[in-house]
Amino acid sequence: MKSEQNDIPTAQILIVDDEDSHAEVMAEALRRLGHVCTVVHDLPSAKDELEHGRFDLVVTDLVMDDEDDGQQVLACARQTQENAQTIMVTAHGDVPTAKQAIRGGAYDFIEKPLDLDNFRTLCSNALREVMLRSQNATLHERLDEQYGLEGIVGKSPAIRDLLVKIKQVANSNIPVLITGESGTGKELIAQAIHQNSPRAKRTFKPVNCAGLSEGILESELFGHVRGAFTNAERDRQGVFEFADKGTLFLDEIGDMPSAMQAKLLRVLESGEVVRVGANEPKHVDVRLVSATNHDLAQRVEEKEFRGDLYFRIRGVELHLPALRERTEDIPLLVAHYIPRFAAQANMEPPTVDQDTMLALQAYDWPGNVRQLINTIQQMVVVCDGDRLEPRHLPMEIRPTAGASTGSVAEIKSGMSLDQLEKQAIREALRIHAGNREAAAKMLGIGERTLYRKLKEYGLK
After folding, report:
1. Ramachandran angles phi, psi of 6, nearest 5°
2. CATH says 326-392 is which class?
């Protein structure tokens, strides 16, 4: 839903002013545009909101109890609200200080007494800047698709940090160890490292070390000569030779038999492989990327994995979080894969209704992204209309009758129950563009309860 002025989407706005009436005038001016406003009247309350909530715009009085309160609000907003803009409200005599705040990162300032039309225009311009930043971030992500990162979908801090690290390590030859639960997409990370490296035009070869006996894995990695063992009817090149000048990805390396660990270490130290049944070594130039769903440090302590090999393959460690730890990425993953599976089924991509998306975000996803992708494919195939609804969900994900489909609040470390409730109400109002009836229904509470909570939390 968009506000009335300049098609600005509904935004979350924090208003900080020690004058109750002045704060309410600003809040009401912005609520008329469809925005969700939270009002507080002192620095501690503002810091609490900024540390535990999510805002697109902060409007703060420059001088409150102390002369630098507004500056402290600005500093806290810049630290906690990555994409938000801040507008300073100032008396005429404080204009030089307001200009200093702009140099400190504020978007702009406006003098009292407010001209409400100018105030609304200024806030809309600031929000348009926030939209532009978001669009630029999206464009940046699309540009990433040209560099082999198209399969890594997400805007969560963990994924953004991971993408930065991928680009940092890709240009070197340092070994990389990728950790994370099964199904999180570790091979995608390995492919991205390869595609962003100088070896991108060479071979990328994945090998799964799990479930293979020592003999089979040795032949797979190093190759063999004719007659080396029964059924060895001809010479065979191993993957180390096959991936020469390229990248070798050893998946589930934590499950490698102990005898093979010693042989692998010897190859990594010497850069030479000897085919099974042969004596002549062959030099290879391979970038090694490994992955595991085990805690290898613990397995070293338990004598299940060689410590010298662990430190050899762990030049840089990249951790891929479980999907339940980055639920904010689920809508992006859904939007990414629906068109793909719809095209395979020769159908128009269906949309996803709100209850379905909330159910997807509320589920624990033990199989991580792999399970989510399979679920999306299944839902698209069984969809009998133009909209994915809860009835299209697999039974283990489908919400039970009367059950909540999940919280709309993003839980942050240290949030109290009141803070969590407040954030849930803000998000529900944002999603429904200020429609209190719809927000109350989404939250599973009565309208009177919602009205009481709005007054209690200064949301009105």
Report:
1. 60, 25
2. mainly alpha
Is residue 15 within 8 Å of residue 59, measured between CB atoms?
Answer: yes
Dump pLDDT digits (tens) for 244-297: 999 999 999 999 999 999 999 999 999 999 998 888 899 999 999 999 999 999
71 vs 256: CA distance, rounded Å: 57
How many Å apart are CA 419 and CA 426, to the nearest integer? 11
Please give the backbone phi and psi of residue 125, each rounded to the nearest 5 degrees, phi first. -65, -40
C-alpha–C-alpha distance, residues 317 and 330, integer Å: 25
Q: What is the pLDDT of residues 89-101, one digit of tens each?
A: 998 777 788 888 8
Instruction: Classify residue 348 by its DSSP letter.
Output: P
Burial classification of residue 19, based on how many CB atoms lie within 10 Å of its CB (0-12 exposed, 13-18 middle, 19 or more buried): middle
Tell whether domain 157-320 is in CATH 3.20.70.20.
Answer: no
Please indicate, yes or no, whether the overall pTM of this predicted structure exceeds 0.85.
Answer: no
Of 1.20.1640, 3.30.70, 1.10.10, 1.50.10, the CATH number of 417-456 is 1.10.10
Neighbours of 337 (CB within 10 A): 20
The architecture in CATH of the region 12-140 reads: 3-Layer(aba) Sandwich (3.40)
Delimit the domains of the chain by residue range. Answer: 12-140, 157-320, 326-392, 417-456
Alpha carbon distance 178, 152 (integer Å): 14
- The token duo for 432 is 């429904």
